[in-house]
Amino acid sequence: MVIRVGIIGLSAKATGTGWAASAHLPYLQKSPHYKIVALCNSSRGNAEAAIKAFGLSADTKAYGSPEELADDANVDLVVVNTRVDTHDTLLLPSLRKAKAAFCEWPLAANEARAKEMLEAAEKSGSRTMAGLQARASPVIQKIKKIIDDGTIGKVLSSTLYGYTHNGGAEESESVSYMTQREVGGNILTIHFGHTIDYLLYTLGEIETVQSLLATQFPEVKLVDSWATRKVVGVAKKNTPDQILLQAKLKTGALLSVHIQGGYPPPFDPKALWRIAGEKGDIEIAADSILLNVRTEGFPIRLHIRETGVVEDIAIEKNELDNLPMPARNIGRVYEAFAADDKSNSIASFQDAFRIHVLIESMLNNWDEGI
């Protein structure tokens, strides 16, 4: 059965990251499992312009409101690719009509609005996917298999440190909203959110946790792009640019995470993740923490204590690796959904909401000076 897709936010004049076009469209246009049958934008005219700009079928429906899209009985799955503070308003009509949903991460601007989306999906029975696609990364799947197979024995501890590009003394003008906490899209919710999800997916759930947040750059320079870094303005910032978390997991392992906002220095590695087990260790020394977006440049090294051997672990590739890099893990999520994969490599709204709860508690502690 071909899954009929309606996309909200695929624009011919995209601002921000242009994520719908770069990460979702490449897979959906080629997949035999999906067909794009409708677009919804801020106006019907904008949707029609996008249909033409991206070469979609002439019979693709154009809608100017989420209610119109929700009323289309020929749409099975609604995909939302807009700024985070619009996700709930745009997707709730379809959730209430029991349509399947793919919502980019974060689900919403805060925990309360994310909860409303989760409850609507649970009430109607909607099948849900959240854009926490690092779970589907071949790197994460390989690390999880090594751990689950017992190769390094019981996990004792894990530490991750890395930079984000965004969120430091400079910010890209196209995502200047990352400086505004009320929008809900910043390096805590986005970069840390993606990272903590793949860490907990790999290592296990949190039992107890402590966190520390700080804003070291309360005023930032806005730059035209990361390539040229020409200053085009300034912005006040009330979102954190230093994120520290320490946790005890339900497995008994300890977890330490430090994510630093800003453009990384010319040192290598720019991101380092180590997992210590009773029998061995795993190390990923890379130039990014963003396993949700990147699929290359994450070499896995395995150390076995008994032999002292250090091995470079190969990552298998498949046809999805021929897609543009941002689309590869998204494509893997779509593939699993089409196959009705019952594993938890697809993050549901329930999975995403747990990350929202964690982030909200971190923000509350920060507000209270804890």
From TrEMBL:
Residues 138-285 form the Gal80p-like C-terminal domain. Coiled coil: none annotated. SUPFAM superfamilies: Glyceraldehyde-3-phosphate dehydrogenase-like, C-terminal domain, NAD(P)-binding Rossmann-fold domains. Residues 16-131 form the Gfo/Idh/MocA-like oxidoreductase N-terminal domain. It comes from Microthyrium microscopicum. InterPro entries: Gal80p-like_C, Gfo/Idh/MocA-like_OxRdtase_N, Gfo/Idh/MocA_oxidoreduct, NAD(P)-bd_dom_sf. Gene3D superfamilies: Dihydrodipicolinate Reductase, domain 2, NAD(P)-binding Rossmann-like Domain. GO terms for molecular function: nucleotide binding. This is NAD-P-binding protein.
